[in-house]
Specification:
single chain; alpha+beta; 6-stranded mixed sheet; 4-stranded antiparallel sheet; 9 helices
Length: 281
C-alpha cells in the first residue's frame, strides 16, 4: 500500500467530506498545464462558466481539476503531484461553499460589523469566513476582501472555529456592486489607455520603470494574489492609463506575471476591465 503523506491525508479527508481538494505548489500556486493540454486543450476550461470535466490525467487545471474521487487522488500522476505539493487547496464552489478572504485587520473589523458570524479560519495576515452556499467569485469587492467560491480555489488552513452560517444576501450584494466586466481576449483585445491625452511622463524610462515595478510586485506576492493583481493593475492604470501610453505589450507583461502566480487569463481580463471601470477609463 502506498504510504500517505500528511498533505495527501488532508486531501483524502477533504474529499471524504465532499470538499474537492487540489495540490498547490510553493506560493499557493496550482500545478501548471502539462504539455499535452496547454491552454486547457484537453477539456478543462477555467475561463468558461460551465467547464466540462478535465480529461487530462494530471492535476493541471487549478480549481477545475479539484476532485472528491479518492482513486484519482492516490493514483499516478496525482500521487507525484501530492508528493511535490507544498499545501492543499480546495474548490469552495464545488462543495457548495463561499470563502470570504479577509486580508487584513481592517477587513476583519468591517466583516464583524457588517456580516453574520460564521466559521472562521485564521490565515497568514487575516481570516477566511466560510459560508454555506455558492456564488460567483469576485476579487477586490472591498479593500482587502475577495470572494472565492465557483471557479476559484482557496488554501485549506484547517477546519476553523464557529458554526457555519448560510450565505447572507450582504455577501451576494458585494458581488452585485462589482462593476460589470468585459471579457475580451486577454492581450491584444484588452483595452489599454483611452488615448487622446498628452503624455505626462516625458520619457519612456518612467513608464518602463512603472511596468517593471508592477511586474515585480505581482511576482513577489506570497499571499492574496488575486487582490495584489487587481490593486497593481489599478495603480498602473491610474498612473499610465489616462494618456494612452500603455501598449498591448505592456499589458501582456502584466498578464504574464499574474498568470505565473496562478491567475487565469479570465481573472486577468476581469481585473483589468474592473480597474478601468473604477477609474472611468
Amino acid at each position: 500500500m502506498t504510504q500517505q503523506t500528511p498533505i495527501r491525508r488532508v486531501a483524502l479527508s477533504l474529499a471524504a467530506a465532499g470538499v474537492p481538494p487540489l495540490p498547490l505548489r510553493a506560493g499557493k500556486v496550482p500545478f501548471g498545464n502539462c504539455p499535452a493540454c496547454k491552454a486547457n486543450a484537453c477539456g478543462g476550461r477555467p475561463n468558461m462558466k460551465t467547464p466540462g470535466p478535465c480529461r487530462c490525467p494530471s492535476p493541471c487545471h487549478a480549481w477545475a481539476a479539484a476532485t472528491t474521487d479518492p482513486a484519482v487522488i492516490v493514483s499516478p500522476p496525482w500521487a507525484a503531484a501530492w508528493q511535490g505539493a507544498a499545501c492543499v487547496g480546495y474548490h469552495p464552489g464545488g462543495a457548495g461553499l463561499t470563502v470570504l478572504d479577509l486580508d487584513d485587520a481592517d477587513a476583519i473589523a468591517w466583516a464583524h460589523g457588517a456580516l453574520p458570524a460564521t466559521r472562521t479560519v485564521p490565515t497568514t495576515r487575516g481570516e477566511h469566513w466560510i459560508y454555506r452556499g455558492a456564488m460567483r467569485s469576485v476579487n477586490g469587492v472591498r479593500d482587502g476582501v475577495d470572494i472565492k467560491s465557483t471557479m476559484a480555489y482557496a488554501r485549506y488552513l484547517g477546519p476553523g472555529t464557529g458554526t457555519m452560517a448560510d450565505l447572507p444576501d450582504a455577501v451576494r450584494a458585494l458581488a452585485a456592486k462589482e462593476p460589470p466586466t468585459v471579457r475580451p481576449a486577454p492581450f491584444a483585445a484588452a483595452p489599454t489607455g483611452v488615448g487622446g491625452g498628452e503624455c505626462r511622463h516625458r520619457t519612456p524610462a518612467y513608464l518602463e520603470r512603472g511596468i517593471a515595478m508592477a511586474v515585480q510586485r505581482i511576482t513577489e506576492a506570497s499571499s492574496a494574489v488575486h487582490a495584489t493583481v487587481y490593486r497593481t493593475f489599478l495603480a498602473v492604470l491610474s498612473t499610465h492609463g489616462p494618456c494612452g501610453c500603455l501598449t498591448d505589450a505592456h499589458v501582456a507583461r502584466l498578464f504574464t506575471a499574474a498568470q505565473s502566480k496562478g491567475e487565469t487569463a479570465r481573472h486577468c481580463t476581469d481585473a483589468w476591465a474592473n480597474a478601468r471601470t473604477r477609474l472611468g477609463l
